[in-house]
């Protein structure tokens, strides 16, 4: 067994760490008390992201979860309101039901299609509130890119149709744009056009973008004024937050333009996996658009995701003997995550290099051959 192993960590784009220029910007940042509105670096970031999205104002908040919750609290600030979200959305699956638990808003799900959208006729059928027995449907959330749908970019023509239905029923539109810039990169579109129909947008700086922490909520002056108040009640008022706003500014300037490389590298990996012609492990290439890849295990095979995750993290003497090593002779560990029994999720971010991808291919080729069903793993 090799003494040392080389780790390629593809579990999540939230693993991206601040660059050297981000770390330097943190030590140089001019700061003040942001709860008093006196941190110039936070103000610079807020103005910058508002301009980038073509909206009036923005608010820096600690996380994407808080950004979504505050948006719901502001838009649905009356009793008896309802928000419509996709059934695979982050808000529904992974934010602890905060909209209901904390904001007192009813959350109703619409079935997400594989492309991250939902059926607009179905959505229209869900709109209610005329009858006094019903909650009042107030807001609709779209996730772009869509995490659980495999980093899928919401089609622009669908957004146009959504906007028409929303207008007809006076519904507020919010975009969970945790990975908005992955979407704009794929579409080759100005973010202003992608979000123009949305009343509010949340954007994360700490996903693929490398900033250590933080998200922004973007919208009108009046919306942001109310959002600032909500941030305080949730304990999200930050004092000398310029030290974390500074790396977010660098993320927008230096990492956003580089996202294209993350998408290219992931596609290269996906094509290499399919070129292995494994009867067991495949990628649906037409569904790969940005920096999230779903790796499928043949349903008929007894191999489950958890076993694959564990095997990719193990270095055996057999693989070392067969030369599954780095150029320095180190064993290779590849970390990915299981999404369900038959699907694994792989992500790229700016620290994942071409060399990392080559090592990943080397390791996967060996492990996939070892685990494929034709080699005795049938149930
Ligand atoms: C689509 C989406 N929205 C919101 C969030 C929440 O962000 P945070 O972890 O900063 O609360 C995530 C986190 O992964 C996400 O993928």
Features:
379 residues, alpha/beta, Aspartate Aminotransferase, domain 1, 2 domains, seven-stranded mixed sheet, binds pyridoxal-5'-phosphate
Describe the model.
Helix 2 (40-52) runs parallel beside helix 11. 40% of the residues lie in helices and 18% in strands. It has 379 residues and is an alpha/beta fold. The chain has two domains: 5-14 and 258-374, Aspartate Aminotransferase, domain 1 (Alpha-Beta Complex), CATH 3.90.1150.10; 18-256, Type I PLP-dependent aspartate aminotransferase-like (Major domain) (Aspartate Aminotransferase, domain 2), CATH 3.40.640.10. Pyridoxal-5'-phosphate (PLP) binds next to helix 3.
What's this entry about, in short?
With about 375 residues, the protein is an alpha/beta fold. It has helices at about 20-30, 40-50, 65-75, 90-95, 100, 120-125, 155-170, 180-185, 190-195, 220-235, 240-255, 260-275, 305-310, 315-320, 355-370, and strands spanning about 5-10, 55-60, 80-85, 105-110, 135-145, 170-175, 200-205, 215-220, 280-285, 290-295, 330-335, 335-340, 345.
User: What is the spatial order of strands in the main beta sheet?
Assistant: 2-8-7-6-5-3-4
- From the spread of the alpha carbons, the general shape counts as globular
- The CATH C-level name of the largest domain is Alpha Beta
Say what the CATH topology of the largest domain is.
Aspartate Aminotransferase, domain 2
Give the strand tally.
13
CATH architecture descriptor text of the largest domain:
3-Layer(aba) Sandwich
Q: How many strands, what sense, and barrel or not for the largest sheet?
A: 7 strands, mixed
The DSSP helix count reads 15
Distinct ligands, ions and cofactors found in the model: pyridoxal-5'-phosphate
Helix amount: 25-40%
Distance between the termini: 30 Å
């Amino acid at each position: 067994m090799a003494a040392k192993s080389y780790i390629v960590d593809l579990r999540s784009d939230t693993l991206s760490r601040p660059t050297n220029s981000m770390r330097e910007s943190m030590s140089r940042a001019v700061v003040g008390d942001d709860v008093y509105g006196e941190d110039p670096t936070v103000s610079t970031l807020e103005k910058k992201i508002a301009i980038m999205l073509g909206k009036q104002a923005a608010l820096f908040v600690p996380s994407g979860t808080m950004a979504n919750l505050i948006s719901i609290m502001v838009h649905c600030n009356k009793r008896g309101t309802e928000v419509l979200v996709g059934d695979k959305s982050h808000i529904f699956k992974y934010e602890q039901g905060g909209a209901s638990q904390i904001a007192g808003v009813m959350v109703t799900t619409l079935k997400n299609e594989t492309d991250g959208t939902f059926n607009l006729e179905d959505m229209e059928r869900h709109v209610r509130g005329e009858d006094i027995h019903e909650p009042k449907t107030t807001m609709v959330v779209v996730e772009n890119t869509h995490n659980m749908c495999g980093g899928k970019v919401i089609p622009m023509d669908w957004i146009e149709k959504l906007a028409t239905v929303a207008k007809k029923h006076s519904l507020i539109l919010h975009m969970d744009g945790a990975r908005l810039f992955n979407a704009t990169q794929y579409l080759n579109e100005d973010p202003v056009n992608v979000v123009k129909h949305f009343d509010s947008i949340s954007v994360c700086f700490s996903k693929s973008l490398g900033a250590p922490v933080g998200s922004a909520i973007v919208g009108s002056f009046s919306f942001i004024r109310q959002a600032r108040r909500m941030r305080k009640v949730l304990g999200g008022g930050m004092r000398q937050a310029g030290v974390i706003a500074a790396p977010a500014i660098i993320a927008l300037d230096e990492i956003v333009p580089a996202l294209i490389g993350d998408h290219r590298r992931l596609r290269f990996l996906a094509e290499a996996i399919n070129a292995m012609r494994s009867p067991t492990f495949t990628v649906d290439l037409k569904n790969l658009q940005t920096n999230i890849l779903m790796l499928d295990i043949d349903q008929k095979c007894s191999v489950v995701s958890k076993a694959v995750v564990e095997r990719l993290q193990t270095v055996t003497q057999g693989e070392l003997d067969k030369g599954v090593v780095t150029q320095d002779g180190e064993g290779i560990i590849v970390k990915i995550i299981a999404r369900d029994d038959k699907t694994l999720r792989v992500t790229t971010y700016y620290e994942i290099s071409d060399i990392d991808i080559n090592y990943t291919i080397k390791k996967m080729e060996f492990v996939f051959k070892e685990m494929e069903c034709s080699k005795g793993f049938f149930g």
